[in-house]
Amino acid sequence: MKPPAPTQAPYDRLARRYDLAMGFMERMGLARLRRMVCSRVDGRVLEVGVGTGANLPFYPVGSRILAIDVSLKMLERARAKARKARLPVSLGLMDAQALGFKDGSFDMAVATWVFCSVADPILGLRELKRALRPKGRLILLEHVRLPGLRGRFMDLLNPLAVRLGGENINRNTLENVRRAGFQIEEARPFLGGLIRLIQARS
Asked: pTM of the predicted model, to two decimals?
């Protein structure tokens, strides 16, 4: 396993209150979107940025999941969720930008609300592409920059969002996926395009 990324400490501090803070949003629709993502998995799956394990209860029975995060405290909470869900998931401390896996190790990669906070998202996505087998699938659920005036407003707010939560709210993740070498198969919008479910092939 690679050493933890420099961003570990803020997420360690956030781990205790993360589920409580996100509870309302999960009930208002985020949990439904997580279920949609997890219903698509098959084969050997890498989940990047597992956090406190919010996706783990939604994976189908028999899923083969290896999940990583940069925060030990987040992983502790994810481990508890995995036990409760009776999901035999392997959990590890690792940075998405420096995956400690051989080329072609996975059939699929999953990340939900992760690449807004990866320091170099294209590097992280290229690492995922390397770790996937040829024609392997990538599924992302991400909030993205809106076009036009709304996007410019997000640009203005982004420095504050980064300071408060470490998340960039104005990233063009769809374009980043393309730049990393993936072939986009689907880019389904939710909440007026603020959230995108992105499916791509390596």
From this structure: 0.89
